[in-house]
Amino acid sequence: MQENYLPNRREQFLWWLSTAETALVKDAVVDRNRHSIVGMLVLGTWSFATLAWAYFFSTVVSAWWMALVLGIFMGGLILFIDRALIKGVQKSKSNGWKPLVFRLFLALAIGLFMAQPALLFLFEKEVKVQASIDNEKRKKIKNTELVKTHQNEKEQLLNQKKIATATLNQYYVEMVNTRNQFIAETDGTGGSKKIGLKDIALAKKAAADKAAIDYQTILEKQTPTIQYADSAIQLINNDIAKEQASFNQLLNNGFITQIEALDHLIQQNKAVAFRYYLLVVLLLLIEIMPLLAKYLLPSGTYEINAELVEAEEIKLIKKTYS
Hints:
mainly alpha; rod-shaped
């Protein structure tokens, strides 16, 4: 035992990360290295969490400095949680496994979440292509919904236009037929086969004139109906186009859109799915390694000394207030 050992700042920082008491661990020769190892693992988890959260926030906010600040903040929370759980590991007690179980669940939640932005970074091009395809599908679905919403109104207008047009065509055909019959009668190519304006030709002329007047009357009556239907249909089409354009502007390549695209890639591509679950496992190992190392590394003189010091402090406090 080297009672006069003076640790450097690096060692002190690593021991702080591992939650070791500097005054006790500096005299425990073997445990110095053990706690330095745990401290380095905590440092690695802290750094990874900070980078991962910073990248996640970079997909949400536009300012890079804000993403960095938020990433540092969330990384700090992970650090505090790690230190609290590591401090709670006491293998000599029966409940020493509880922090490890809790950390496993926490690591699973964090690992599953942080695997997503990591994969978005690794498969950025593929995800953007899939997101573009998904957005086009969303546009088609939205257009179908808009058309369906205005379908009844549009069908009524089209039906009104159809009836008015059919009536107009009927009178037009009648006008053309009576005019052709009159012409055929006067030039001898049809009817009585007599050239000239005879009684039959005069009667057919009167019928043609009446048909022309009737057509003009119905034309004046049905034209407003047709024009109104055309105008109303055009307004509906403009509304659909306007709503579609507004919807298209809402589409983006934000985090949720990319996550949905990633899910579609995982479902459609086995290679991506394999790497996704492999990365989840790796992230889980990164998240749990500090606590796992603390739990698996053998107990040394530091823990025994810490328990004895704590027991002496308890005795002293009881003696003081007794």
